[in-house]
Every structure is written in C-alpha cells, then in structure tokens.
Amino acid sequence: MIYYIRLLWPDDDQFLRDLLIPDTLSFLDLHKAIQEALGYQTAEMSSFIITDEAWNKLQELPLVNFEDSKSTSPMDIPLNTYLNDFHQFLYVFDYFSERALFGQIIKTEEDKSQKITTPVLVKSEGNAPEQMKIDLDLGIEDSFDDNDDDLFDDDEFNDTDYFDETEF
Q: Is the pTM value of this prediction over 0.70?
C-alpha cells in the first residue's frame, strides 16, 4: 500500500508538502524524508504524535528512546503499525518551541507494480519553517531607565562606603 501524506504548517497557509511512501517503510524513513523535504538537519530531536480526528494524542514515537539509549529508535517500526487509511499525526520538529507540522494520509493506493520503494516528494509549496526557533524573550521587562544615572536613587552613594580599598 502507498500512502499519500500531506504536511501542513498551521502558521503559513502557503506551505504544503506531499509525500508518497510505502506503508511498510518505517516512521524513521518518513522522518528522514520529511527532514530532506524541508532542508533540515536530521540530528535534531523530533517525534511523531499519532492523533485522533480531534488531534488528541494517542501515541508518541520519539526519534530517541529515552528509557534505553542502546535500543533502536521508537520510530523504527512500520508506518502501517499506527497509520492506516486516513489517519492523521503531528510531526514535532522543534521540541524547544513546541512546533509541529500537521500530517494526514489523504489517499491510499495499492502498489501493484512495486515501483515505489522509497519516499518520494511529489509536491512542494511555500517555504519551510525554520528548524529551530530560539526565543530569547523570557518575559522579563527591563525596569531600568536608560537615562537614569542614579541607579540607587541615592545622590550620596560612594563605593568606598562599601569596600575597604586596603583589602585589594
């Protein structure tokens, strides 16, 4: 069976990627195909989250097994283990900012000729989101006035009141 998978980015309605992939290939194969289709580096942490129709999490398949680092990747199982017909999933590509693509099987087809053996990118529209979004705004407002020369509101401040120069 061949899955026609569509990936959407909720922050950009111009973004779309369609992939064909045999259902016997693994989630790891799909991960690599998505990374390649987006121009991402494959070493970054990511996971698939299998969802129901309301996008509620049913199962997560991370790239790395955190419980046993010596075992194979949880993604190293066939797609048809969790996906069939018109299932949907999230593909988390940025763990730190919790950003994910929406994925859905839009069509299935028998592969009678056995021609498709690897994932194939068949449609690419729009720009991929940057792989890592680093937000350094910690929500802390700057309470200092740049024009305020008197930091301690004390006209009489003298650092010698606090430090004994003989100690240095």
A: yes
Q: Which two structure tokens, joined as six digits, stand for 97?
A: 């900012």
Tell how far CA 109 is from the center of its chain. Answer: 28
Domain map of the chain by residue range? 2-125
Q: What is the dihedral of CA 148, 151, 153, 157, to 10 degrees?
A: -130
Q: What is the pLDDT of residues 146-157, one digit of tens each?
A: 555 554 555 555
Sheet order of strands, 88-94 included: 57-62, 47-51, 88-94, 99-109, 2-9, 12-22, 120-125
Query: Which residues share a beta bridge with 21?
Result: 3
Distance CA 45, CA 125 (A): 24
Tokens of 23: 């259902």
Cβ contacts of 109 within 8 Å, gap of 6 or more: 1, 2, 4
Burial-class residue 31 by CB neighbours within 10 Å (0-12, 13-18, 19+): buried
d(CA 67, CA 47): 15
CATH homologous superfamily of 2-125: MM3350-like (3.10.290.30)
Record the tokens describing residue 151, joined without a space. 């930091």
- What does DSSP assign to residue 11? T
For residue 167, pLDDT over 80 is answered with no
| Token pair in block for residue 7 | 């990936």
